[in-house]
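User: tokens in, sequence out, please.
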């Protein structure tokens, strides 16, 4: 075996072996939307004395970490995002009311001597000397006149909740003091012990966030002037277990350096995550099976070997996700499934080029040589198309939030691994097969000697597609007008991510129709809420500002209206400021995506071709958005992920055609561009159809099996795939031809010299490279 194939075989073997080892020995890290739990995004705010900068946010993270640890949540995650954002993930927590209340409070703990007991009504009244009046927790309607602060929560080293086993007086909280705080506690209790039994001055008030949580009297056995020594004490107050544990968590965490607001909150039930995993797995297996069957029928032996490489691609992608510790989210799972369909593209490109080479020799050529040429000529198109997809995936990771970031990660990994799969694993298998004598004597077995249905149909009469470019452009303009009319007339149904508000999905054990659910939600106090059936036994409620207590009231009202046992399956809460921010980020992401594609394609081709490709992708985006407007479907962050993927996919097909145009113009720079472009479109059409079918099999399986959460995502991508194919013919190529006629590439070098002219579709960088190697352009 020659050195190059042996080298590739070793790389393929190592990659597959390492992937298999990782897959068998490590487990994936599932996001909360797959394993169930609550994610809370907090935003720090300026206080009168402290600015909410990055350092204050970092200190707030450490305080919150202690509180969350004290709550006993399994495998919690806290991370700082930017200067003012904190992301808290609480696996298994389905009711976020208690968690968000505990972790978001400032928890200013102070200790005060009690000066007097009064029956004065009204709010707390601070005094100049630091004393104030607060309600007495032990006397309904009574108040306590408190002296100055003698101790703060900074002096508390530890706090633990415990059950009083002896007196059975319920739960209490034990406080352990640090440093001089123990002496301060002994001093204040020592002074209180000097007061007569039963007098108010014998009490010591413990205040949390401006509320007296306990004001115990000092026991009779405490010596006057000595107080409670030992650096520890107990807080009693008739607590139940949850109240004691929450209080211990707050006290142990200490005071937040700055206030925090909840700007985003997401809760997903574990059953919804399990269903999503099962549905996506089924979609992946069915889509992969259909894709494998299709390419095996089309490319025979090479198709079967590509199927093996595709399965190994899935293994390597999964191992890469696990190895880097990426969090697998629901959109990320969809991205993983989609990447399997897109991975077929590189194999199809290679096999179609190899088939062209072999058929060009009228059956007298060498199978290994044709396959080698196919890999060599497809390399440029594969690189360009994958880079455009990576640009979109990178923007998703940069601008998206929450689970959608996972889509950008999995799509990026999928694209990179597909390169290894196609040009290493698939190539090793294919080249090894075509070198076998049994295969060389039976070239039709490989699929390279077969013309193929699409190619045979086109060979009978090559259609003049580009010749009717003005008609194509007119039809496309009409479709864009219909899409824009939908956006203007119907408007976009923006999700809570972009508008702010709350979306809650309830599952009911008994079927509740939409009208009954609307009546229940109205009875709960929200007559303007948008109530819809989102599946068998599921009711979704979308409204503006909604507190956790109000969300719980809607849940109870649904149960009272015949819903039976009602559970929260999904809960998304977005603050209005974050909604505005996400909406702006979405527009910025789309704008940068268009600009990035324009710059990259200008470098790789020429500005005329790049502009044509960008016009086509804008055309595709407008049609997809217009489709969702006419259908009344929700435009949310998952839809944004689909649109940015459409941007990358739309350019893929255009790049393949432009790559052929560039190649043909190098061979014959005097040929008419329209005729050259028409030939390029016709010759790449088999690849376009075969690649599109591979992606549509997977997306169709996702649309049918993925459930409500992935159905709209799949619909957007199916539309994008179909429109991306059509826009190449109807928009990109016609616009490129028109721009080239108006602004042809300027001559370079000696006037009239053939070596000095730059081929349309060839970038200056490419032209210099060609001139340097003596290429005729």
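Assistant: Sequence out:
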């Amino acid at each position: 075996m020659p050195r190059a194939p042996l080298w590739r075989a070793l790389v393929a073997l190592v990659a597959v072996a390492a992937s298999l080892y990782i897959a068998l020995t490590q487990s994936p890290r599932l996001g909360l939307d797959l394993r169930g739990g609550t994610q809370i995004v907090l935003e720090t705010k300026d206080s009168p004395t402290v600015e909410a900068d990055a350092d204050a946010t970092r200190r707030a993270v450490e305080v919150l970490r202690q509180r969350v640890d004290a709550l006993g949540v399994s495998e919690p995650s806290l991370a700082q995002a930017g200067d003012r954002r904190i992301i808290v993930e609480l696996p298994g927590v389905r009711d976020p009311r208690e968690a968000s209340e505990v972790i978001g409070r400032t928890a200013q703990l102070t200790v005060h001597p009690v000066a007097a007991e009064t029956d004065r009504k009204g709010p707390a009244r601070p005094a100049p000397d630091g004393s104030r009046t607060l309600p007495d927790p032990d006397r309904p309607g009574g108040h306590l006149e408190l002296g100055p602060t003698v101790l703060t929560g900074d002096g508390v080293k530890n706090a633990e909740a415990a059950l009083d086993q002896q007196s059975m007086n319920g739960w209490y909280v034990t406080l352990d003091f640090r440093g001089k705080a123990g002496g301060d506690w002994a001093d204040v209790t020592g002074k209180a012990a000097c007061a007569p039994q039963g007098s108010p001055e014998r009490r010591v008030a413990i205040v949390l966030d401006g509320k007296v949580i306990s004001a115990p009297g000092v026991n009779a056995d405490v010596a006057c002037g000595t107080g409670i020594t030992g650096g520890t004490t107990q807080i009693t107050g008739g607590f139940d277990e949850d109240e004691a544990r929450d209080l211990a968590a707050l006290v142990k965490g200490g005071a937040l350096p700055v206030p925090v607001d909840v700007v985003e909150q997401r809760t997903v039930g574990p059953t919804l995550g399990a269903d999503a995993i099962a549905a996506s797995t089924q979609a992946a297996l069915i889509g992969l099976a259909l894709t494998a069957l299709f390419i095996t029928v089309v490319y025979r032996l090479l198709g079967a070997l590509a199927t093996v490489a595709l399965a190994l691609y899935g293994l390597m992608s999964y191992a890469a996700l696990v190895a880097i510790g990426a969090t697998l989210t629901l959109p990320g799972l969809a991205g993983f499934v989609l990447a399997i369909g897109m991975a077929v593209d590189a194999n199809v490109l290679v096999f179609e080029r190899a088939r062209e080479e072999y058929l060009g020799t009228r059956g007298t050529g060498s199978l290994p040589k044709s396959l080698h040429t196919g890999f060599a000529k497809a390399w440029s198109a594969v690189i360009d198309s994958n880079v455009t997809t990576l640009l979109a995936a990178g923007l998703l990771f940069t601008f998206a939030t929450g689970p959608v970031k996972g889509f950008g990660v999995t799509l990026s990994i999928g694209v990179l691994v597909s390169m290894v799969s196609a040009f290493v694993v698939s190539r090793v298998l294919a080249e090894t097969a075509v070198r076998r004598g049994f295969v060389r004597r039976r070239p039709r077995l490989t699929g390279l000697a077969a013309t193929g249905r699409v190619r045979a149909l086109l060979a009978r009469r090559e259609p003049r597609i580009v010749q009717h470019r003005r008609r194509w452009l007119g039809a496309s303009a009409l479709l864009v007008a219909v899409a824009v009319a939908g956006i203007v007339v119907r408007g976009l149904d923006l999700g809570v991510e972009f508008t702010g508000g709350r979306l809650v999905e309830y599952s009911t054990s008994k079927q509740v129709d939409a009208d009954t659910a609307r009546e229940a939600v109205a009875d709960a106090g929200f007559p303007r809420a948008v109530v819809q059936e989102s599946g068998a036994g599921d009711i979704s409620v979308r409204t503006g500002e909604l507190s956790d207590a109000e969300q719980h009231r809607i849940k109870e009202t649904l149960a009272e209206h015949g819903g039976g046992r009602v559970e929260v399956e999904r809960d998304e809460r977005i603050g209005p400021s974050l909604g505005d921010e996400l909406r702006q980020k979405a527009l910025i992401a789309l704008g940068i995506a268009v600009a990035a594609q324009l710059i990259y394609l200008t470098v790789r081709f020429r500005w005329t071709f790049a502009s044509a490709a960008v016009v086509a992708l804008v055309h595709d985006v407008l049609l997809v958005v217009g489709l969702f407007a006419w259908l009344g479907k929700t435009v949310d962050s998952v839809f944004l992920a689909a649109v940015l993927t459409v941007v990358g996919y739309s350019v893929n097909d255009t790049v393949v055609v432009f790559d052929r145009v560039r190649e043909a113009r190098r061979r014959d720079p005097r040929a008419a561009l329209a005729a050259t472009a028409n030939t390029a479109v016709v010759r790449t059409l088999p690849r376009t159809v075969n690649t599109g079918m591979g992606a549509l099999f997977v997306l169709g399986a996702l649309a049918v099996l993925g459930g409500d959460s992935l159905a709209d995502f799949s619909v957007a991508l199916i539309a994008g795939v179909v429109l991306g194919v059509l826009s190449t013919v109807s928009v990109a190529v016609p616009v490129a031809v028109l721009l080239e006629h108006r602004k042809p590439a300027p001559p370079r070098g000696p006037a009239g010299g053939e070596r000095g002219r730059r081929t349309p579709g060839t970038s200056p960088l490419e032209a210099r490279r060609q001139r340097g190697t003596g290429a005729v352009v």
